[in-house]
């Protein structure tokens, strides 16, 4: 979830995450007080590769 997402609020992302029965899961929150990311930023910003795609890749490879 993006820390400044106006489309999918934190509560919605957390609700979905909490309802997935698997224990093999992680909720990735991206952005910081210095780097506010919105919905599309997770896919098209210059930071997307480092803060979204690399952590997802690493999580998948660890499985």
Can you characterise this structure?
This protein has 63 residues and is mainly α. It has one domain. Helices cover 44% and strands 0% of the residues. The chain is built from three helices and no strands. The mean pLDDT is 94.
Quaternary state of the chains: single chain
Percentage of residues in strands? under 5%
Shape: flat
The total domain count is 1
What structural class do you assign from the helix and strand content? Answer: mainly alpha
Please outline the major beta sheet.
none
Order of helices and strands: HHH
Enumerate the spans where pLDDT stays under 50 for 5 or more consecutive residues. Answer: none
Q: Please give the alpha-carbon distance between the first and last residues.
A: 21 Å
How many helical stretches? 3
Measured on Cα atoms, how large is the radius of gyration?
A: 12 Å
Mean pLDDT: 94
**Helix content class:** 40-55%
The tally of strands reads 0
How is the secondary structure organized here?
Blueprint: H1 10-19, H2 41-44, H3 48-61
Q: What's this model, at a glance?
A:
The chain is mainly α.
Q: What distinguishing features does this structure have?
A:
63 residues; mainly alpha; flat
